[in-house]
Amino acid sequence: MKPIPVSAFVEQNVRNVCQKPLTTLGFLTFSFSVMGTCLKFRNVPLRCCSIKRTYSFTSAEALPSHAKVVICGGGVQGAALGYYLAQHGWGKDTIILDQGKIGKARAHHMSGLIGIFKPTPAETRITEESIKLYDELARMGFDTGFKQCGSLLLARTRDRLTHFRRMKSHSVCRKIECYLLTNEEIAKRYPYINTQDLQGGLWIPIDAVADPHTICESLATLAAAQGVRMFEHIQVNRVLTSQNKVAAVETDRGTIKCDFFVNCAGFWARSLGKKTQPLVKVPVQAVEHYYLHTKPIKDVDENMPVVRDLDGHVYFRVKDGCILAGGFEPLAKPVFEDGALPLSVEESQLEVDWDHFAPMLEQMVHRVPLMRGAVLDKLCNGPESFSPDCKWVLGETSEVDNYFVATGMKSLGIASAGGVAKHLSEWIVTGKPPYPLNELNVQRFVPLHNNRQFLLERMREVPGVHYQLPYPFSEFRTGRRLRVLSVFPTP
């Protein structure tokens, strides 16, 4: 079944809502009213121009006995995949399971950055698909927080500026609009940036920001309207197989027979993979990731672009009149080292280590001096999952047929969700990927990469690679000498 445009789908289902003030969709109950201004649509009856969606959880509802696709994870990745499967006509045969609440996320633990330039063409294409989806949702009136404010990448060294020139060259074949800027041009356009130690910058107008929480809710609403069933507060115990193929999903509330299983469980993905027989390797590990929020700043420019000081390992953006800042430190701190994971997103809040965050804070204040006078609102520390090579982990596993993975998004899940979901949905429905993702495929890893000791050692280095200069023949320094020949000299 050919997918339908978002606009046509929304118009069709809004009209259905007009006829049915209260609609029960499987497990969740969605009530619509004219109170509030959550969603606004054009070319629909006046009484439906303002729609407020709420849903309630009913623990007494029994699980279905069978489904084509079971998705584990009700975040933006899972909601987007459910939406695209519904577009292919699989809505009534798709189930989303979450151990917490669908779309429930820590609002202060998301940067919402969407950068089009990625290390590989496949990642760039996926991000482009995400931008198209969010832009269309925003045009239809959904509250997505989507804003193409652009981004400014800063260079402190000549090597970084050389890399920007290469990015400018690559932009021609990738059809990405971008411009090299001198220090004088940066200072004239963005006077709040300290340019004294800069060599130049790269301006990318297409880059954007969005609100992952509201996008997740919007996609979940659209998916549910086409029959996707969502079950909350449910634990997936293990995935059952038959002849190395997905057969069923065992939960704490019963077993669901299914043809496909998709692991979108974030930093729980590795633990979930180990609950399958044969074991499915999903080499991701959570590390600490910080988000700094200031109080509202007077006269701050809401259209301020995202500023990425790559050599300082920090970034900035404006959100609701405040500055949201974060970074990818060169030496990160892995978490949950003993393997004991929190039972829900709400319980994953980590203690703030100001000594660890201090170097990033120093770089933030240095680059944007107006932060010196800003009042701190909160500093949040939450776990984010990374893969051993700092790339996304996608695709069908080599151990079990019809077992798909979408994780390791390195705090950039909103940038990947739309494109990843579109890609995986086509792969699941047609049996083959629409285009190759070799550099992102989960099958690129060997069993050693799933070793806990290796992951803990490697993850200290990986987050910093995200902003590191990609010198030719660069190699990781950590996670070595774990498996050597007997003649190999050891200290």
Automatic annotation (TrEMBL):
UniProt GO cellular component terms: mitochondrial matrix
Residue span, FAD dependent oxidoreductase domain: 68-427
Domain of life of the source: Eukaryota
Listed Pfam families: DAO, FAO_M
FAD dependent oxidoreductase central domain residues: 430-484
Gene3D superfamilies: D-Amino Acid Oxidase, subunit A, domain 2, FAD/NAD(P)-binding domain
InterPro entries (alphabetical): FAD-dep_OxRdtase, FAD/NAD-bd_sf, FAO_M
This protein's name: Uncharacterized protein
Organism: Daphnia galeata
Upper classification of the organism: Eukaryota, Metazoa, Ecdysozoa, Arthropoda, Crustacea
